[in-house]
Amino acid sequence: MCQKGVDKSDWVWLVKEHFFTEKFKETSTRNSVNRSKLSMPHRTGSKPIREIIYEMGGKDGKLPDVATIFFETRKKNNKLVEPETSEKYDKIKELMQSESSLTNIEVVERCFGPQQKSHVVGFGGGITAKELKGGNSSKAALLEKLNATVKENESLKGRLEGLESKYDELGSKF
Q1: How far apart are CA 85 and CA 43, in angstroms?
Q2: Taking the complete model, does pTM exceed 0.85, yes or no?
């Protein structure tokens, strides 16, 4: 059965040359096993979490908070089904209420621990912790701070040398 919008010869090649390879079968089996072990699976089907975030305000530059994203991607009939999912959701909401100044990534890291380089819990693949922390702008800020510190150190060294020379002058008079 050829997928809609795909040329039949392309589909035949894909099935024969890709889906029936041993590597693909192994990967597929491993992924199926890993998905079955998830204690808090997302329930968005084939719709990427990034698309849900986009539709919930991301397109306007208003990223929804972690609690909203977590709930919207794990609900079933507008409720959280798994007890562990409900507990995590409550923990997220409680943390956000008690410390409202926390950023999304700070909330995620406090509830789920340090995040991997290429994946952040609740945001799906492709969203990195670095992007949520501010990406390259934080690097620029660090470089600016480093340069300011270097200048301050040079200034302090100059003042110290001046004081040492005055001390030496006073010491030679006595």
Answers
A1: 12
A2: no
